[in-house]
């Protein structure tokens, strides 16, 4: 059996593969590098061994189905070709997707409030409880509203989410482990789940724009304390990159506003959702455009110094902060 699993939801994709192998009582093997890809291995059958499920990940071109397709149909093994997407403009891909012998499944990440539904079901599947209000808080923290949409001719042709379900599942399991009687509370979410970096950036930039220095410093300190996977220098480099990205967005929105660019055109060019554009417009109105460009130049210079000199990171952090007020 030959199947093609498409989409960016690698979590659900892997779950489906695991269930399929368990139901078939088959040995499961993943092939994720060209060096490990051996057509003969995919075809081999042993009368006395268990069935086999081979998952070929990200190797569509190397698999050369134009040449090997009929061979793969001749084996009793289950072969799953896992890719994020295929180029549907290619004649062979068009032919492949119409072949009734091939099972094609799409695994797209939940979009918008679909994430809320997924969170609620996942908590229940793991034996926990969570109210719809807390589901909403968790979905926002995970970055539900921070994805981007690519449009062509006014139609959405691609969506890039700011989260993945491996991350969401990890946070849910952590919350359940720390919850009282297996029910996740809003306090649990606020105390244990870090906000999406984009949200951190909005909050810091907004506080700077309002002149709330102490709040901005507190938010920066919180951001640095949450970067547990990085050393001090790495965390400050992340902060520098985050601030630079936010102020580049502010400069871009100010330019759009100066040219009276229609909102629909801005959304199409940036891939943002309308909610994100609303927030960026509000923040950008708080900064003189000259100050934005000056800060961008300085933070980019400091970023270079962070990466190329031995100056203590804390000294460079103080220099970054000094540019903000």
Automatic annotation (TrEMBL):
Top-tier EC class: transferase
Gene Ontology cellular component list: DNA polymerase III complex
Signal peptide as annotated in the record: none
EC number: 2.7.7.7
Reaction(s) catalysed (UniProt annotation): DNA(n) + a 2'-deoxyribonucleoside 5'-triphosphate = DNA(n+1) + diphosphate
SUPFAM superfamilies attached to this UniProt entry: post-AAA+ oligomerization domain-like
InterPro entries the UniProt entry points to: DNA_pol3_clamp-load_cplx_C, DNA_pol3_delta-like_C, DNA_polIII_delta
Keywords per UniProt: DNA replication, DNA-directed DNA polymerase, Nucleotidyltransferase, Transferase
Biological processes per GO annotation: DNA-templated DNA replication
One of the record's GO molecular function terms: DNA binding
Family indicated by similarity: Belongs to the DNA polymerase HolA subunit family.
NCBIfam families: holA
The name this protein goes by in its record: DNA-directed DNA polymerase
């Amino acid at each position: 059996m030959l199947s093609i699993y498409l989409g960016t939801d690698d979590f659900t994709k892997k779950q489906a593969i695991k269930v399929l192998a368990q139901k078939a009582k088959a040995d499961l093997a993943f092939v994720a590098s060209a060096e490990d890809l051996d057509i003969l291995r995919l075809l081999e059958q042993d009368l006395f061994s268990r069935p086999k499920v081979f998952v070929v990940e990200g190797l569509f071109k190397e698999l050369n189905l134009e040449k090997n397709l009929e061979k793969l149909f001749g084996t009793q093994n289950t072969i799953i070709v896992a890719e994020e997407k295929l180029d549907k403009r290619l004649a062979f891909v068009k032919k492949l997707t119409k072949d009734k012998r091939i099972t094609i499944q799409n695994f797209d990440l939940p979009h918008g409030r679909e994430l809320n539904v997924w969170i609620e079901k996942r908590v229940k599947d793991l034996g926990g409880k969570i109210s719809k209000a807390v589901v909403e808080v968790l979905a926002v923290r995970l970055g539900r509203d921070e994805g981007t949409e690519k449009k062509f001719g006014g139609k959405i042709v691609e969506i890039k989410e700011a989260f993945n379900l491996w991350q969401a599942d990890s946070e849910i399991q952590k919350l359940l482990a720390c919850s009282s009687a297996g029910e996740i509370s809003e306090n649990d979410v606020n105390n244990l789940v870090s906000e999406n970096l984009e949200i951190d950036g909005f909050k810091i930039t907004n506080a700077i724009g309002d002149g709330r220095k102490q709040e901005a410093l507190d938010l920066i300190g919180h951001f640095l304390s949450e970067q547990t996977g990085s050393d001090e220098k790495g965390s400050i480099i992340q902060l520098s990159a985050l601030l630079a990205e936010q102020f580049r967005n502010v400069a871009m929105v100010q330019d759009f506003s100066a040219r009276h660019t229609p909102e629909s055109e801005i959304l199409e060019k940036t891939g943002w959702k309308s909610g994100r554009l609303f927030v960026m417009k509000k923040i950008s109105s708080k900064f003189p455009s000259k100050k934005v460009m000056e800060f961008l130049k300085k933070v980019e210079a400091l970023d270079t110094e962070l990466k190329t000199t031995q100056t203590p990171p804390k000294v460079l952090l103080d220099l970054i902060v000094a540019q903000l007020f």
